[in-house]
Amino acid sequence: MSVYKAKSKNGKSNKSWTAALDLGLDSKGKRRRVTRAANTKREATAILRELERTHLGASEIIDVKSTLGEYIHTWYEIKVRGIRRAKTASSYYYVLHHYVVPALGRKRLVDITSTDIARRLSALAEEGLAITTLKQIRVVLHKAFNDAVADGKILKNPVSAVPTPRVE
Length: 168
Description:
Oligomer: single chain
Radius of gyration: 19 Å
Structural class: alpha+beta
Shape: elongated
Number of helices: 5
Largest sheet: 3 strands, antiparallel
Distance between the termini: 34 Å
Strand order of the largest sheet: 1-2-3
């Protein structure tokens, strides 16, 4: 799954964008791929989401406009506060609003990748954050993104591909 700037046959960049969805291999071992052209990157991203729904069977309509910060706020209010113990809820709130939302909160939920999460955890590790805190951040994000997948906001959990921080 990717969105990239289209290139002409001579290798130069075009003004158009391409949305490409990899469907794996067919019975003969040949790569199956669906591509569509678009005028803007935003259009290509929307086309890619539509291709994912069509070819991968996502039944829900993916919310492409909400940001991570908006989703985390809503998720906390609905799925955490009042359901978890007060101390657990307050630690979730602190971790999310102190370490995650300032850096990634303005990014759209559907655009968050495992690379974004890994970079954020690595930046926090370089700042000297304890391994247990890094693990807690990953766990809370994993829960939030699992609920986003279950609610049909995104197709897959990007935190699943991020390794758990380990002591060196």
